[in-house]
């Protein structure tokens, strides 16, 4: 009896695996056409100066609206795009699109664009960045590139040289999702990052989790001592903002301030913020 049940389970599992594999193949196929079909867009989330409450930057975040699946989150489609190699094409498009949008914003507002390590490993990456800047007219000082520590990339001399070349052109480099990778400290030592983004998973445990708070405090002290700016990701509640600011975190990002918004909302948002911040610097805008 047990043997039979085992075999039945095995068959079910097998079918389930087959179904998943088919769904995955279909997703890959649709993803290859998504850019051409105009299904991919960027949304923009404000990054706020914690001391003044003003927006100083927007992070560009990829969105895929697929007619039958609805909104597919980047956590699902970016890894697939990386595996099938189209992330390079996507990433170049994101870069151009983000620079073009940012060039229309006030001159003191910057744009942060996420990079896949695969983009950095391409020989023409610097040319792609330069083309995006030239086409849009965006000054390099207004562009920040976010890289994640999910793969050991600055250990790689070639990639380190690419990052240095970008930096020497006036572009800033942020280390994204800090604390979640496996080589955070060696990263900081091997490349002069301009900014460190403290991952949401740490911010979520503030206040209350003593151990996490001690680690975040130490990271903020460390960043300050090596002259690196800090952004806390995923700030959702006021006590998080207050504590992070008190510990010397320079910028914040999260639903407390605003959710990512479509490009056409940005100008309106900035105009509204102007009026609000004159009255009360720390007021959070209600969710749309
Ligand atoms: P990330 O770069 O760390 O982006 C921050 C993520 O946190 C975004 O999720 C954002 O919507 C979300 N977030 C912001 N504030 C809050 C908050 O208060 N609470 C919570 N729970 N979440 C918040 P999103 O847009 O789903 O992006 C997820 C990840 O996908 C990004 O993480 C990034 O690693 C990747 N990604 C997104 N766009 C791109 C892109 O254009 N290129 C590449 N290579 N990766 C991208
Ligand atoms: Mg990011
Ligand atoms: Mg991040
Ligand atoms: Mg993150």
Automatic annotation (TrEMBL):
<feature type="domain" description="EAL">
    <location>
        <begin position="24"/>
        <end position="274"/>
    </location>
</feature>
<protein>
    <submittedName>
        <fullName>Diguanylate cyclase (GGDEF)-like protein</fullName>
    </submittedName>
</protein>
């Amino acid at each position: 009896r047990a043997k039979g049940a085992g075999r039945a389970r095995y068959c079910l599992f097998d079918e389930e695996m087959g179904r998943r594999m088919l769904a995955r193949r279909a997703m890959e196929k649709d993803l290859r056409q998504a850019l051409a079909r105009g299904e991919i867009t960027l949304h923009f989330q404000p990054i706020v100066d914690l001391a003044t409450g003003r927006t100083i930057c927007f992070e560009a975040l990829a969105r895929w609206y697929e007619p039958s699946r609805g909104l597919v989150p980047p956590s699902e489609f970016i890894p697939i795009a990386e595996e099938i190699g189209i992330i390079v094409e996507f990433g170049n498009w994101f870069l151009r699109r983000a620079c073009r949008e940012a060039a229309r914003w006030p001159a003191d507002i910057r744009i942060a664009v996420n990079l896949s390590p695969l983009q950095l490993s391409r020989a023409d990456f610097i040319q792609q960045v330069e083309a995006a800047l030239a086409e849009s007219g965006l000054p390099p000082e207004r562009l920040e590139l976010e890289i994640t520590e999910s793969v050991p990339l600055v250990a790689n001399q070639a990639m380190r040289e690419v990052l240095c070349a970008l930096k020497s052109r006036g572009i800033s480099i942020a280390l994204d999702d800090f604390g979640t990778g496996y080589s955070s400290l060696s990263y900081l030592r091997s490349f002069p990052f301009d900014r460190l983004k403290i991952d949401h998973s740490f911010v979520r445990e503030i206040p209350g989790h003593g151990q996490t708070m001690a680690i975040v405090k130490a990271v903020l002290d460390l960043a300050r001592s090596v002259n690196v700016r800090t952004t806390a990701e995923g700030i959702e509640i006021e006590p998080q903002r207050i504590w992070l600011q008190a510990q010397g975190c320079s910028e914040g990002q999260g639903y407390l301030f605003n959710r990512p918004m479509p490009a056409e909302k940005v100008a309106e948002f900035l105009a509204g913020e102007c009026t609000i911040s004159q009255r009360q610097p720390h007021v959070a805008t209600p969710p749309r």
